[in-house]
Amino acid sequence: MSDHDLALLAHLLRRAGFGATRDELEEYATQDYAAVVEDLLHPERFPEVEEDVVCRYYSLGTIREDSPAVWQGRWIYRMINTKRPLQEKMALFWHGVFATGWHKSEHTPSMALQIDMFRRNGLSDIKTILLDLSRDPAMLDWLDNSENHKDAPNENYGRELLELFSMGVGNYSEADIKMAARAFTGWTYAQPIPLYPYGFYPAHFVYRPDDHDESVKTFLGKTGRFNGEDIVEAIVKKPATAKFIARHLYNFFVADEPQVPAWNQMPPQDPQAISALSRAYFDSGGDLRAMLRVLFNAAFFKEARFRKVKSPVELVASTMKLVGTYRFPDPGLLTLATASSVMGQSLLNPPTVEGWHTGKEWIDGGTLNERVNFAVNEFADVTKPGVQAMVERLSALGATRAELRRVGDASERLAATSAITSSTVVAWDSTAPVHDPSPTVR
Q1: What percent of the chain has pLDDT over 90?
Q2: What's the helix, strand, coil split of the chain in %, to 5?
């Protein structure tokens, strides 16, 4: 396979996963591009991460089960080691869209189970995803639907379901919010056994028919005695929902868009791409796998290099893949979660229901410094297996000692780009010349 084809695969694996080593790229390259896309879209073809191994070292069944740092570290370990990269990437995608923060409930088991839910259904259809979300205890607590009663409606979840999770501002009315809230009365959760001293006991969804508002409701132009399922059914049929989900996918996988609150004022930068993804939405009944198949095979995706700023956790996970460490749950794994947090992204704990602001807003004077220092510190250690592999490959390709010394001398300058930029794997690991692209894009 040519360097150009390897570069395209590397681009795909950075966006649909967390990057790839040269050896992993060459393994993927035994298939054509479309076949690799199909493998990514079907994670069930590949084995799961051996979670029991991680649990032996990171506190399954102990008091630390409720530590968000432990679960953050375990998730980053999965990102580094998974054979199902798109499954983990979709869990991260939905975690950003359906932003739910630990800092309100402080109940880590529910947060961990929400991420498991995103792994399980993240490539399914939008109706299934929204219904599962509406029954998720972490979300029910986060947006107060557990406080939504037939004699005292709480509009928080109904509002965000429409504004931030499905349709976007300008595509519904205040009356629709009130009707959605009434339809979701009675959707709550059972309180779990206290964590201390008993350990891991998750909450679970409960529907209380005696607390549900059975009155006639008018929602998005339809009238009936609606329950929550009817609200979701109406939402997923709307063109606004197709466009909203399509734009989220474009923003996450293709190129940085303006922040979500501006979408009703600022048109998408590539309307044709959004239209193609919206058609795939309706052709497939809102199937995310079908939408992503169109996206990954499209020219607008293949040509979209250097158009996204990596999130902190993407930077951390992709750096560790390249330097070749944490392929086993060694001590120190939780420091990776800390590194992501100081760069501005604390997994399981987004700042608000709006989630993290992405793109250029990941970068300021402090966070850029943290990014560069993290990557420099990782790549400056030439004993790391991934760095050794790069040096050995360059040597095998005929690099002189002086050239290798220059690579070593440049490592502190190039280290950040190796995790942050769009062309890293080819730059380090092929016959393409080492170069120094922008340290903020991929």
Answers
A1: 75
A2: 60, 5, 35
How do residues 202-213 score in pLDDT, each as one tens digit? 899 999 999 999
Give me the phi and psi of 387, to 5 degrees please: -65, -40
Q: Which residue has the tokens 């050794």?
A: 388
Place of tokens 């602001």: 357
Cα–Cα dist 329/49, whole Å:
12
Please name which of 105, 160, 169, 173 lies closest in space to residue 134, comparing C-alpha atoms: 160
Quickly count: other Cβ atoms within 10 Å of residue 41's Cβ: 18
Sequence-distant (6+) residues with CB within 8 A of 442 are 14, 305, 306, 308, 309, 310, 420, 421, 422
Q: What's the DSSP call for residue 152?
A: B
User: What digits encode the pLDDT tens for the residues 121-131?
Assistant: 999 999 999 99
144 phi and psi, to 5 degrees? Answer: 70, 20
Residue 324 CB burial class (10 angstroms; 0-12, 13-18, ≥19): middle
Structure pTM?
A: 0.91
- For residue 125, which phi and psi values (nearest 5 degrees)? -105, 160
First and final C-alpha spacing in the chain: 22
